[in-house]
Amino acid sequence: MTAEEFNQCVDLYADNLYRFILKNVKDKDKAKDVVQDTYEKLWLKVSEVPSTNAKSYMFTTAYRTMIDMFRRDKKQTRMEEGEFDEMLSHKKQYSDLKAVLNEAVNKLPEIQRMVVMLRDYEGYSYKEIGEITNLTESQVKVYIFRARIFLKNYIGDIEKVI
Predict the structure, then answer these.
(1) What is 3-75's CATH number, 1.10.1740.10, 1.10.357.10, 3.30.160.70, 3.30.450.40?
(2) Which site from 12, 20, 89, 128 is most exposed, i.e. has the minimal number of CB atoms within 10 Å?
(3) Tally of CB atoms within 10 A around 98
């Protein structure tokens, strides 16, 4: 698909796609976000998607993006004012969880510590970590898995730490 064909797809299908998503989401801003994400995903795959399949690709992608949004929203819960204040209050027991976690992370081998820090603290993807560390994506996943198992065993039951 060329850039011109992409622009034609935007002109032809944007309204239909927006209405389809809005009908299901019932929130104008979220519907606009889903449509925008869909066009972004199409643009990233513009060389792989033939213009004859663009409409079905967009609607499929929009549907999946909408489902992902529903799942993400479902995981997020609203907190009442009292609950938030209760979370901020000090508990009777004191444990410096950060110190325990830092001690555990420092006991990891250097490569495992590095990939865990890049993934969990910095938020890099496995592919980006592989590029940074000159490892394959599968090696990165293995190192992260092993590090997390070590941390789980080292820290033990979180209830005992807290």
Answers:
(1) 1.10.1740.10
(2) 89
(3) 8
Tallying the residues shown for the chain, one arrives at 162
* Per-residue DSSP letter, 123: -
User: What angle do the packed helices 3-25 and 28-44 form, to 10 degrees?
Assistant: 150
Domain 91-161 has CATH 2.60.40.3080: no
* Cα 2 to Cα 6: distance, rounded to the nearest angstrom: 6
Question: For residue 121, which amino acid is it?
Answer: Y
- Residue 88 CA to chain centroid, in angstroms? 27
pLDDT (tens digit, 9 = 90+) per residue, 58-90?
A: 888 888 888 888 888 887 766 555 555 555 444
Tokens of 117: 């820090």
| Closest C-alpha to 107, from 118, 95, 120, 116 | 116
Amino acid symbol at 65: T
**C-alpha span between 73 and 30 (Å, rounded):** 11
Mean pLDDT, rounded, of the chain? 80
